């Protein structure tokens, strides 16, 4: 299956997971057809191409589906070699990026999503604390990965796998700040890299 061919992406505009895949495709200069998908009223395409999880994103390459954003981004990186690589070449750096990307999906995403879905103020406060704790742990990793600010991105000088995993959640941090008045990212605590 070469890099050419019919390429479709089933997605939802507000999904950080879909954003991650769209950014990876853009980085590689790959054209595709985007199909906005109603995840509440699961359409025929979504049910056909992701019958297990029934969620987006789903990348359909020459009629063959790929599911789960991390898997899709790795596939995009392997199939389309144009542009900078998304995953590090070094096996340890690649494993580290995968570890922290999984952390973002398993800890950070559910925490901030819980803020939106919390039925009470007390439940929302618990999820705010969980989000802050997840971000604090991520800041520790960032200090190491960014080499004390000597590197601008997790991937070094170019956007990489972990940058996509973290970055696709950031627009929600601003939305949550505006909706609930909680500041998750504080430049005084986490200065930007030079």
Automatic annotation (TrEMBL):
It comes from the Eukaryota. It catalyses: RX + glutathione = an S-substituted glutathione + a halide anion + H(+). Residues 5-84 form the GST N-terminal domain. One of its GO terms (biological process) is glutathione metabolic process. It is found in: Cytoplasm, Cytosol. One of its GO terms (molecular function) is glutathione transferase activity. Its EC number is 2.5.1.18. The keyword Ubl conjugation does not apply. Keywords: Cytoplasm, Transferase. It is an enzyme of class 2 (transferase). Belongs to the GST superfamily. Tau family. Is involved in the conjugation of reduced glutathione to a wide number of exogenous and endogenous hydrophobic electrophiles. This is Glutathione S-transferase. It comes from Hordeum vulgare subsp. vulgare.
